[in-house]
Amino acid sequence: MNLLKRLGCRRASVLGLLAATVLVTPGTATGAPDDVRAGTLGAQAAQSGRYFGAAVAAGKLGDGTYTGILDREFNSVTAENEMKWDATEPSRGSFTFSRADQIAQRAQARGQRLRGHTLVWHSQLPGWVNSIRDANTLRGVMNNHITTVMNRYKGRIHSWDVVNEAFADGGSGQMRGSVFRDVLGTGFVEQAFRTARSADPAAKLCYNDYNIENWSDAKTQGVYRMVRDFKSRGVPIDCVGLQAHFGAGGPPGSFQTTLSNFAALGVDVQITELDIAQAPPTAYANTVRACMNVARCTGITVWGIRDSDSWRSGENPLLFDRSGNKKPAYNATLTAMGGTPTTTPTRSGTPAGSNGATNAAALPGRYAWSSSGTLISPKSDATHNIAGIKDPTVVRYNGKYHVFASTAGSSGYNLVYLNFSDWSQAGSATHHYLDRSAIGKGYRAAPQVFYYAPQRLWYLVYQTGNASYSTNPDISNPNGWSAPRHFYSSMPDIIKQNIGDGHWVDMWVICDSANCYLFSSDDNGHLYRSQTTVGQFPNGFTNTVIAARDSKYAMFEASNVYKVQGSNQYLLLVEAIGSDGRRYFRSWTSNSLAGSWTQLAASESNPFARANNVSFPSGSWTRDISHGEMIRAGHDQTLTIPACRLQYLYQGLNPSAGGNYDLLPWRLGLLTQTNSTC
Ligand code: 9MR
Question: Which region is the signal sequence (predicted)?
Fold first, then answer.
């Protein structure tokens, strides 16, 4: 967004494009679409802020059918065996990570998240550990193993199974015998979690087990008591993994109760190793539905991809058959998450070439969209007289859309927050004015929100004249934002040298696994980029360069940069002003955030989004497709978007409105891609 009022100039007169002031009656919310219905497991799970993962074997990564399905369907990956103790520390102090790295690097390159499995387990444990009899030695060995493996993947694993299967089957409700329990006592679990927290404070620490799905089972109760005790004493634990290796009957009737009861202790729950004998569709649907019904059930992992990949392959327990075709359980699973199974051929996942999976997910070069009517309009109150709501940023998290936007009016710019569960409710959501939080009054505009997973903190990035941010542990608490801090001590020299009569606007942060980048625009044809490391963020932004340049109106402002899910592509959008004076978006791609950008759909006749490729079934309420944001596949700092059926929340305005730019009646609407081929 630009800020012309401060500078006393008027966009209308500068461009001679906007007519004299007209009183505008905003359109009402008509034709609001439903929530996105995705066609793949990962994309659909992401609609509710969850992940859908698979256990992956390094030895199968050369199989194109296997990786084709993996990259198309899953947005989280667990190494099936490669991160276990026998694989990572086969002899004392000698660590081997090559196969685990293979899985981790591949997943990261494709924007898939990683689950860590597992640090302390009595099985797949090398003989040298099993034969230790001295408690100090074993404690040292265990702590060193946890620390070394976690350090290797620090900041890259969303959840770690710190201790696996420590409880006994049967009616005792006690821990099973193992070298850890026998030599260290049952306190080894607590010790392991404390060590794990110090090693990687950003990872969720999970206790993982099987046969703890039925609430009344003694084993479930034993684990529940342990977690309750940990929470009451402040022992660090963040989640319980329920493996969910089910017989053909599927989950027990109490499964959802078990998930809720664990969650009520203040931990997340995850279904970590799902497979069901014979894969009855109803059994899968019941399992998935139980997770969807529990807010703190944050994700589901199936234990393998095709039946032939399963540890219990004789029982055909997975979602894809031996040839990689979707089984009925697949459709049941997708539907249970609210997705729509496609009717495309069931034979799936065979890539065209060695990089076929990447190409399959890559973005198309032409776009067509359908727009909603106006979904969100300003809501003035006694102390806020608001003319326009602008520059939206949005994440889907915990079953809700969370939208932050600029408010513009005669008293200047500030920020507003609202949330709602689906677009049909956007218009009736309460507007929370963030000038009442520590963000404070004064010029704050063009927000961008994301969850910075390494710090477990939400960030709101915005412009104040500098590039600024606030943080909040809880996105849904409008009063939880911290006071503004600046990313830079002052405007970087390269911007001073190139900004001309433009304005420094629209700061945007995106991170890959190593670095975070801060992009900004200057209303003068330049896109700037600074960088820092993931570890240093939000400090240390330096090396500011011109990442892209064009003429002033061809590369104006409101740039967005995203990671495309399931590919190694990044997408850059920049708002331009067309020959008709109307706002529209051009697009570029790159395979690196610090790389150069190649045009994708970047002209007026083939735009990313412009009035000429948008249909308005509920009325053409705007000719401008201006500053906004894509609906993401997740909510973290990687800003990952789906490759299919894109949606873009944008600002538009009544075409006959004009006058002072800062008082224009901007409203928010949603574009949905109509020419997606996947
Ligand atoms: O799927 C894994 C299989 O390839 C291994 O041979 C087996 C060895 O114990 O472990 C399997 O995975 C197990 C997981 O790590 C923990 N929960 C039970 C899983 C199935 O046995």
Answer: 1-31
Atom of ligand 1 nearest to the CA of 84: 15
Distances (CA, A) of 647 to 31, 35, 259, 369, 644: 15, 10, 32, 9, 9
> Integer distance in angstroms from the first to the last C-alpha of the chain?
32
Residue 172 to residues 105, 130, 178, 183, 525, Cα–Cα distance (Å): 42, 24, 15, 20, 70
- Cβ pair 372, 423 in contact under 8 A: yes
Give the distance (Å) from ligand 1 centre to CA of residue 80: 7
**629 annotated active-site:** no
| CB of 123 closer than 6 angstroms to any ligand 1 atom | yes
User: pTM score > 0.85 for this model?
Assistant: no
DSSP state of 566: T
Rounded to whole angstroms, the Cα distance separating 645 from 35 reads: 12
User: Which domains does the chain show, CATH number per domain?
Assistant: 3-26+361-673 (2.115.10.20), 41-339 (3.20.20.80)
> Taking every pair of C-alpha atoms in the chain, what is the biggest distance, in angstroms?
86
pLDDT single digits (tens) 616-656: 998 999 999 999 999 999 999 999 999 888 999 999 999 99
| Tens of pLDDT, residues 364-418 | 899 999 999 999 999 999 999 999 999 999 999 988 999 999 999 999 999 999 9
Catalytic residue among 273, 557, 575, 629: 273
